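Can you please make up a protein's amino acid sequence together with its fold in token form to help me picture the idea?
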Amino acid sequence: MSSPDSPTGPAGAREPLSRERIVGAAVAVLDAEGLGGLTMRRVARELDAGAMSLYRHVASREELLDLVLDELAGALPVSRLTGEWRVDAAALARDVRAALLARRDLTLLLTARLGQGAGGLGGLDRAIGIFLRAGFSPRDAVRSNHALGAYVAGSSTWETVGLGGEVDPTERARRAAAATAGLAGVPAADYPYLAVAASELFAGSVEDRFEYGLARLLEGFAVWLAATASAPSRLDDGIEEA
């Protein structure tokens, strides 16, 4: 009798299991069912294989999560660095936003696994390097990158679940218009500030909102840098720009 991860013969040949196939199936499960549904048993079902056969290639679910993160991190869009830190930080934010909007639960995977394996470390190194080369101290570089990442993750989450979740732009616009109309009659005596700003709560596109917040955040970083760093920090000459 053939083993679960070997071909079954010419009539019903099955591609042998490999780490690459397992990771590919895990990504498919992640997209379809989210991080909570990504188990070794579920991936085995996706591959029409026995769960124990997966352990010949991947030692545990923890290792599988690291491999999935490594796979997805390698596929993230990466804009070319210009040497202008605000331009590069903005491009980084847009690249990460595009990836988070395209793949369900990637935010959870990044925050849960980053630092557990190699997956994502290259991107993190690149991101921190943008701030270090600008003259931020190591502490400020890390915290600025964290603040930028938190903004991107939060705005991406809002975009995918706000106003009813993942809907097409036309439906999103309809819901936004309905929400705006519903607030139009809010009593100013009870909600004086909301009454003034009600028409702006859902105005503009999600891209406009994202770019507004991104610009204000980077402006704040620039003010902080000017106040705390008189000159760019000298990094080791052996560190090359990506």
